[in-house]
Protein backbone atom coordinates (compact mmCIF):
# COMPACT_ATOMS: atom_id res chain seq x y z
CA UNK A 1 0.00 0.00 0.00
CA UNK A 2 2.85 2.31 0.88
CA UNK A 3 4.69 1.43 -2.37
CA UNK A 4 1.61 2.22 -4.43
CA UNK A 5 1.16 5.60 -2.75
CA UNK A 6 4.81 6.49 -3.30
CA UNK A 7 4.55 5.56 -6.99
CA UNK A 8 1.42 7.68 -7.42
CA UNK A 9 3.05 10.65 -5.70
CA UNK A 10 6.19 10.34 -7.86
CA UNK A 11 4.10 10.18 -11.04
CA UNK A 12 2.13 13.24 -9.98
CA UNK A 13 5.33 15.19 -9.39
CA UNK A 14 6.69 14.27 -12.80
CA UNK A 15 3.60 15.54 -14.62
CA UNK A 16 4.19 19.11 -15.84
CA UNK A 17 1.26 21.53 -15.44
CA UNK A 18 -0.48 22.47 -18.65
CA UNK A 19 1.07 25.51 -20.35
CA UNK A 20 4.38 25.26 -18.48
CA UNK A 21 7.46 25.14 -20.74
CA UNK A 22 10.38 22.83 -20.18
CA UNK A 23 13.80 24.23 -19.37
CA UNK A 24 15.04 23.47 -22.89
CA UNK A 25 12.06 25.27 -24.44
CA UNK A 26 12.54 28.28 -22.16
CA UNK A 27 16.24 28.44 -22.99
CA UNK A 28 15.50 28.25 -26.71
CA UNK A 29 12.84 30.94 -26.45
CA UNK A 30 15.08 33.32 -24.53
CA UNK A 31 17.96 32.68 -26.94
CA UNK A 32 15.74 33.48 -29.91
CA UNK A 33 14.50 36.68 -28.23
CA UNK A 34 18.05 37.78 -27.45
CA UNK A 35 19.17 37.14 -31.03
CA UNK A 36 16.16 38.99 -32.44
CA UNK A 37 16.79 41.95 -30.12
CA UNK A 38 20.46 42.06 -31.13
CA UNK A 39 19.55 42.02 -34.83
CA UNK A 40 17.04 44.85 -34.30
CA UNK A 41 19.38 46.99 -32.18
CA UNK A 42 22.59 46.50 -34.18
CA UNK A 43 21.82 49.04 -36.97
CA UNK A 44 20.79 51.68 -34.43
CA UNK A 45 23.84 51.12 -32.24
CA UNK A 46 26.11 51.14 -35.29
CA UNK A 47 24.74 54.52 -36.41
CA UNK A 48 25.31 55.91 -32.89
CA UNK A 49 28.82 54.45 -32.87
CA UNK A 50 29.74 56.00 -36.23
CA UNK A 51 28.31 59.37 -35.17
CA UNK A 52 30.76 59.44 -32.25
CA UNK A 53 33.84 58.71 -34.36
CA UNK A 54 34.38 62.19 -35.82
CA UNK A 55 34.05 63.46 -39.39
CA UNK A 56 36.10 60.64 -40.97
CA UNK A 57 35.55 57.95 -38.37
CA UNK A 58 33.10 56.12 -40.60
CA UNK A 59 35.98 55.05 -42.83
CA UNK A 60 37.30 52.78 -40.05
CA UNK A 61 34.21 51.83 -38.06
CA UNK A 62 35.85 48.85 -36.34
CA UNK A 63 38.33 50.98 -34.38
CA UNK A 64 37.35 51.56 -30.76
CA UNK A 65 39.30 54.80 -30.25
CA UNK A 66 38.84 58.42 -31.24
CA UNK A 67 35.39 59.10 -29.83
CA UNK A 68 34.20 62.70 -29.83
CA UNK A 69 31.12 64.90 -30.21
CA UNK A 70 32.53 66.83 -33.19
CA UNK A 71 29.79 65.63 -35.53
CA UNK A 72 27.05 66.76 -33.17
CA UNK A 73 28.60 70.18 -32.51
CA UNK A 74 29.09 70.71 -36.25
CA UNK A 75 25.52 69.70 -37.08
CA UNK A 76 24.01 71.89 -34.36
CA UNK A 77 26.30 74.90 -34.77
CA UNK A 78 27.41 75.07 -38.40
CA UNK A 79 24.43 73.80 -40.38
CA UNK A 80 20.76 74.75 -40.63
CA UNK A 81 19.76 71.73 -38.59
CA UNK A 82 17.88 73.78 -36.00
CA UNK A 83 15.93 75.55 -38.77
CA UNK A 84 15.02 72.21 -40.31
CA UNK A 85 14.11 70.92 -36.88
CA UNK A 86 11.74 73.82 -36.29
CA UNK A 87 10.15 73.33 -39.70
CA UNK A 88 9.61 69.63 -38.99
CA UNK A 89 8.05 70.39 -35.61
CA UNK A 90 5.60 72.87 -37.16
CA UNK A 91 4.64 70.52 -39.98
CA UNK A 92 4.44 67.38 -37.83
CA UNK A 93 2.38 69.00 -35.08
CA UNK A 94 0.10 70.69 -37.60
CA UNK A 95 -0.46 67.43 -39.48
CA UNK A 96 -1.04 65.56 -36.21
CA UNK A 97 -3.60 67.98 -34.78
CA UNK A 98 -5.49 68.51 -38.04
CA UNK A 99 -5.31 64.85 -39.04
CA UNK A 100 -6.57 63.54 -35.70
CA UNK A 101 -9.43 66.08 -35.59
CA UNK A 102 -10.59 65.22 -39.10
CA UNK A 103 -10.15 61.46 -38.63
CA UNK A 104 -11.91 61.45 -35.25
CA UNK A 105 -14.84 63.47 -36.61
CA UNK A 106 -15.17 61.23 -39.66
CA UNK A 107 -14.81 58.01 -37.67
CA UNK A 108 -17.36 59.10 -35.07
CA UNK A 109 -19.85 60.25 -37.70
CA UNK A 110 -19.68 56.95 -39.58
CA UNK A 111 -19.83 54.94 -36.34
CA UNK A 112 -22.84 56.69 -34.81
CA UNK A 113 -24.76 58.33 -37.64
CA UNK A 114 -26.51 56.94 -40.68
CA UNK A 115 -26.43 59.40 -43.54
CA UNK A 116 -26.45 58.96 -47.33
CA UNK A 117 -23.05 57.75 -48.46
CA UNK A 118 -21.57 56.81 -45.09
CA UNK A 119 -20.55 53.35 -46.31
CA UNK A 120 -19.04 54.58 -49.62
CA UNK A 121 -17.14 57.17 -47.59
CA UNK A 122 -15.24 54.53 -45.62
CA UNK A 123 -14.60 52.44 -48.73
CA UNK A 124 -13.26 55.55 -50.42
CA UNK A 125 -10.82 55.96 -47.53
CA UNK A 126 -9.73 52.37 -48.01
CA UNK A 127 -9.24 52.73 -51.77
CA UNK A 128 -7.20 55.91 -51.30
CA UNK A 129 -4.76 53.99 -49.11
CA UNK A 130 -4.00 51.61 -51.99
CA UNK A 131 -2.35 54.26 -54.16
CA UNK A 132 1.46 54.43 -53.91
CA UNK A 133 2.89 57.75 -52.78
CA UNK A 134 4.93 58.11 -55.98
CA UNK A 135 1.73 58.13 -58.06
CA UNK A 136 0.29 60.98 -56.00
CA UNK A 137 3.25 63.37 -56.32
CA UNK A 138 2.31 64.85 -59.72
CA UNK A 139 -1.43 65.42 -59.08
CA UNK A 140 -0.76 66.81 -55.61
CA UNK A 141 1.97 69.07 -56.99
CA UNK A 142 -0.41 70.47 -59.61
CA UNK A 143 -3.19 70.90 -57.03
CA UNK A 144 -0.94 72.72 -54.56
CA UNK A 145 0.39 74.87 -57.39
CA UNK A 146 -3.12 75.97 -58.32
CA UNK A 147 -3.86 76.77 -54.67
CA UNK A 148 -0.51 78.59 -54.30
CA UNK A 149 0.51 76.30 -51.46
CA UNK A 150 3.83 75.07 -52.86
CA UNK A 151 6.84 75.68 -50.62
CA UNK A 152 4.60 76.36 -47.63
CA UNK A 153 3.88 74.65 -44.35
CA UNK A 154 0.13 74.60 -45.00
CA UNK A 155 0.54 72.73 -48.28
CA UNK A 156 2.76 70.07 -46.69
CA UNK A 157 0.42 69.70 -43.71
CA UNK A 158 -2.60 69.15 -45.98
CA UNK A 159 -0.59 66.66 -48.01
CA UNK A 160 0.35 64.63 -44.95
CA UNK A 161 -3.24 64.68 -43.74
CA UNK A 162 -4.28 63.15 -47.06
CA UNK A 163 -2.03 60.22 -46.16
CA UNK A 164 -2.86 59.76 -42.49
CA UNK A 165 -6.58 60.61 -42.33
CA UNK A 166 -7.91 57.56 -44.27
CA UNK A 167 -6.06 55.06 -42.07
CA UNK A 168 -6.79 56.96 -38.86
CA UNK A 169 -10.49 57.29 -39.72
CA UNK A 170 -10.78 53.53 -40.21
CA UNK A 171 -8.98 52.85 -36.94
CA UNK A 172 -11.04 55.32 -34.91
CA UNK A 173 -14.30 54.15 -36.46
CA UNK A 174 -13.57 50.65 -35.18
CA UNK A 175 -12.65 52.02 -31.75
CA UNK A 176 -15.80 54.17 -31.52
CA UNK A 177 -17.84 51.05 -32.31
CA UNK A 178 -16.57 49.49 -29.07
CA UNK A 179 -17.85 52.41 -26.95
CA UNK A 180 -21.46 51.75 -25.84
CA UNK A 181 -24.06 53.86 -27.62
CA UNK A 182 -25.82 54.33 -24.26
CA UNK A 183 -23.19 56.95 -23.43
CA UNK A 184 -24.40 59.05 -26.38
CA UNK A 185 -27.98 58.63 -25.26
CA UNK A 186 -27.07 59.72 -21.74
CA UNK A 187 -25.42 62.82 -23.15
CA UNK A 188 -28.52 63.72 -25.15
CA UNK A 189 -30.70 63.22 -22.08
CA UNK A 190 -28.47 65.66 -20.20
CA UNK A 191 -29.01 68.24 -22.94
CA UNK A 192 -25.68 67.96 -24.77
CA UNK A 193 -25.50 68.64 -28.48
CA UNK A 194 -24.06 65.94 -30.77
CA UNK A 195 -20.75 67.78 -30.80
CA UNK A 196 -20.87 68.22 -27.03
CA UNK A 197 -21.48 64.51 -26.59
CA UNK A 198 -18.57 63.73 -28.88
CA UNK A 199 -16.16 66.19 -27.28
CA UNK A 200 -17.05 65.80 -23.59
CA UNK A 201 -17.96 62.11 -23.36
CA UNK A 202 -16.59 60.12 -26.30
CA UNK A 203 -13.19 61.76 -26.80
CA UNK A 204 -11.97 61.06 -23.22
CA UNK A 205 -12.98 57.41 -23.55
CA UNK A 206 -11.30 57.15 -26.96
CA UNK A 207 -7.92 58.27 -25.64
CA UNK A 208 -6.15 54.99 -26.57
CA UNK A 209 -7.30 55.19 -30.19
CA UNK A 210 -6.51 58.90 -30.38
CA UNK A 211 -3.02 58.28 -28.99
CA UNK A 212 -2.27 55.65 -31.61
CA UNK A 213 -3.58 57.75 -34.48
CA UNK A 214 -1.72 60.82 -33.22
CA UNK A 215 1.50 58.83 -33.10
CA UNK A 216 0.91 57.50 -36.63
CA UNK A 217 0.19 60.99 -37.96
CA UNK A 218 3.26 62.43 -36.26
CA UNK A 219 5.63 59.73 -37.53
CA UNK A 220 4.18 60.02 -41.05
CA UNK A 221 4.95 63.73 -41.14
CA UNK A 222 8.22 63.56 -39.19
CA UNK A 223 10.07 61.11 -41.41
CA UNK A 224 8.48 61.64 -44.84
CA UNK A 225 10.90 62.51 -47.66
CA UNK A 226 9.24 62.21 -51.08
CA UNK A 227 6.57 64.90 -50.76
CA UNK A 228 8.75 67.28 -48.75
CA UNK A 229 11.63 67.11 -51.23
CA UNK A 230 9.30 67.89 -54.14
CA UNK A 231 7.02 70.50 -52.57
CA UNK A 232 9.58 72.49 -50.55
CA UNK A 233 11.97 74.33 -52.85
CA UNK A 234 13.74 76.74 -50.46
CA UNK A 235 16.29 75.53 -47.94
CA UNK A 236 14.69 77.68 -45.24
CA UNK A 237 11.56 75.52 -45.51
CA UNK A 238 13.30 72.15 -45.60
CA UNK A 239 12.22 69.55 -43.08
CA UNK A 240 14.74 67.32 -41.36
CA UNK A 241 14.28 64.42 -43.74
CA UNK A 242 15.03 66.68 -46.72
CA UNK A 243 17.82 68.57 -44.97
CA UNK A 244 19.73 65.34 -44.41
CA UNK A 245 20.12 64.99 -48.16
CA UNK A 246 22.42 68.03 -48.19
CA UNK A 247 25.04 65.98 -46.34
CA UNK A 248 25.32 63.56 -49.26
CA UNK A 249 26.46 65.14 -52.52
CA UNK A 250 27.73 63.89 -55.85
CA UNK A 251 31.37 64.48 -54.96
CA UNK A 252 31.49 63.77 -51.22
CA UNK A 253 29.32 62.20 -48.56
CA UNK A 254 29.51 63.45 -44.97
CA UNK A 255 28.45 60.22 -43.32
CA UNK A 256 29.62 61.38 -39.91
CA UNK A 257 27.29 64.38 -40.04
CA UNK A 258 24.55 62.24 -41.52
CA UNK A 259 24.66 59.73 -38.66
CA UNK A 260 24.79 62.46 -36.00
CA UNK A 261 21.76 64.19 -37.51
CA UNK A 262 19.95 60.85 -37.78
CA UNK A 263 20.48 60.20 -34.07
CA UNK A 264 19.17 63.65 -33.17
CA UNK A 265 16.09 63.11 -35.35
CA UNK A 266 15.13 59.92 -33.54
CA UNK A 267 14.96 61.62 -30.14
CA UNK A 268 11.63 63.50 -30.68
CA UNK A 269 10.11 60.42 -32.31
CA UNK A 270 11.10 58.33 -29.29
CA UNK A 271 9.62 60.90 -26.90
CA UNK A 272 6.32 60.95 -28.81
CA UNK A 273 6.21 57.15 -28.82
CA UNK A 274 6.78 57.08 -25.05
CA UNK A 275 3.95 59.56 -24.47
CA UNK A 276 1.58 57.70 -26.81
CA UNK A 277 2.38 54.40 -25.12
CA UNK A 278 1.74 55.83 -21.67
CA UNK A 279 -1.66 57.25 -22.63
CA UNK A 280 -2.54 54.04 -24.45
CA UNK A 281 -1.91 51.88 -21.40
CA UNK A 282 -3.72 54.33 -19.11
CA UNK A 283 -6.74 54.43 -21.41
CA UNK A 284 -6.96 50.67 -21.73
CA UNK A 285 -6.76 50.07 -17.99
CA UNK A 286 -9.43 52.66 -17.24
CA UNK A 287 -11.99 50.80 -19.33
CA UNK A 288 -14.39 52.00 -21.98
CA UNK A 289 -17.48 52.16 -19.75
CA UNK A 290 -16.03 53.73 -16.66
CA UNK A 291 -18.34 56.46 -15.41
Automatic annotation (TrEMBL):
Residues 1-22 are annotated as: Disordered. It comes from Streptomyces abikoensis. InterPro entries: BP-dep_ABC_trans_perm, MetI-like, MetI-like_sf. This is Sugar ABC transporter permease. The keyword Transmembrane applies. Residues 85-276 form the ABC transmembrane type-1 domain. The chain crosses the membrane at residues 24-52, 84-109, 121-141, 153-172, 255-276. CDD domains: TM_PBP2 (cd06261). The lineage of its organism: Bacteria, Bacillati, Actinomycetota, Actinomycetes, Kitasatosporales.
Amino acid sequence: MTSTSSSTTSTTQRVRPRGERSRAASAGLHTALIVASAVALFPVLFVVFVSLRGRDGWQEPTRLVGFSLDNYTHVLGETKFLTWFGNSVVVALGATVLGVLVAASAGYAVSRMRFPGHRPLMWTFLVVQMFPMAVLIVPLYNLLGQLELLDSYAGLIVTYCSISVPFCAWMLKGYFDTIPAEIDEAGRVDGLTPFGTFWRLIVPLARPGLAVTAFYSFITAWGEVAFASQFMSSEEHYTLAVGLQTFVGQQKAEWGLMTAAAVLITVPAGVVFFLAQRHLVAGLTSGGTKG
